Amino acid sequence: MSVKKKYLKTWVEIDKSAAEHNLKTFRNVVKRRSKLMAVVKSNAYGHGLFAFSKMIDRSGVDGFCVDSFTEGAHLRREGIKKPILVLNYTFPELFSAAKKENIILSISSREGLERLKKLSPAKRPDFHLKIDTGMNRQGFYAETVSAVAEFIARNKLPMKGLFTHFSSAKNVENTAYTKKQFTGFIEAEKKLRSAGLDGFTHHVAATGGTLISADYHLDLVRLGIGLYGLWPSKELERQLGSKISLKPILSWRAVVGEVKEAGKGSFVGYDMVERLNRKTLLAVIPVGYWHGFFRSLSGIGYVIIQGRKARILGRVSMDIIVVDATGIPVKSGDVATILGRDGAEEIKAFETAEKAGTTHYEFLTRINPLIERRII
């Protein structure tokens, strides 16, 4: 492989055709006429908020879910016209700005409703009400829903949606808790309708819930990790992977900055934790933990060079890793694959994250947002 653009030491590639494949896959999974919302919070799970959102917008997704008003406003500046739902807390001082930008907020506390009430009707943004059905994070508990519904109806607040979030939908061996949460959500919805509220969107499913049952599709589904071609859990992949095809869309590459030979007995990197037991060809790669490559991969992680895996030697530094390239025909300027495929070899996010002692969610979102994302 060769570098197509000069002077980039590391970059992330986003595979457009794989993303379109995943979107089509979920169109087929969602049998009802549910809308598909792309969850692009946290820099689109590390895939690049702007690059990924504009690409998937053109591919036909129905709307976007973001973490903050700021993310939503940036998408509006980038020309995104479709619905945008903020999933997390929004400062009340930004409510009127959300109205102006046509960004839908999530309201999950009485304080949020009170601040909304204080605004003139013309400045009140549309919102989705969040119900806490058992995750014990954001949202109104079931016993408060009747009073909340009465407050919304009496003050004519612009509630356009109702939603909850499942705690463990990706755990296919314990579906009882997800079913309990769903039952609680339906009961809360009945209370809202009994108070005279109607015509709102309702939704419960992220990727896991979307895959395990059509009962959870409702008016829309919130597609995060699955849209990026990854499974929420290994258990879910084992159960459904033969029926549903997902393709990872992200590859992370870097250049080989230097190649040198070190003798037997030499130490590599900080703190003398790795001593070579033979003469070794070293490839020095300008990527480190500042870029999002976990320090816990020191000595156990791999990259791919010229279609062959090369183990990391010694400590992962702030901006550098050194790998054992013995037997690989490598030279300065060649490309190393940190995540993704090169030839017959592949480094997967899930397995790499497991080695690092974390999840593929965290590993991907930790890739430094300053690294360029390229659509290929």
Automatic annotation (TrEMBL):
Q: Which residues form the signal peptide?
A: none
Q: What is its EC number?
A: 5.1.1.1
Q: Name one GO molecular function term.
A: pyridoxal phosphate binding
- Using the record's annotation, list all stretches that form the Alanine racemase C-terminal domain: 249-376
Q: GO CC terms on record? A: cytosol
Annotated pathway? Amino-acid biosynthesis; D-alanine biosynthesis; D-alanine from L-alanine: step 1/1
- Catalysed reactions, as listed in the record: L-alanine = D-alanine
- InterPro entries reported for this sequence: Ala_racemase, Ala_racemase/Decarboxylase_C, Ala_racemase_C, Ala_racemase_N, Ala_racemase_pyridoxalP-BS, PLP-binding_barrel
What is the required cofactor set for this protein?
Answer: pyridoxal 5'-phosphate
Family assignment from sequence similarity: Belongs to the alanine racemase family.
This chain's protein is named Alanine racemase
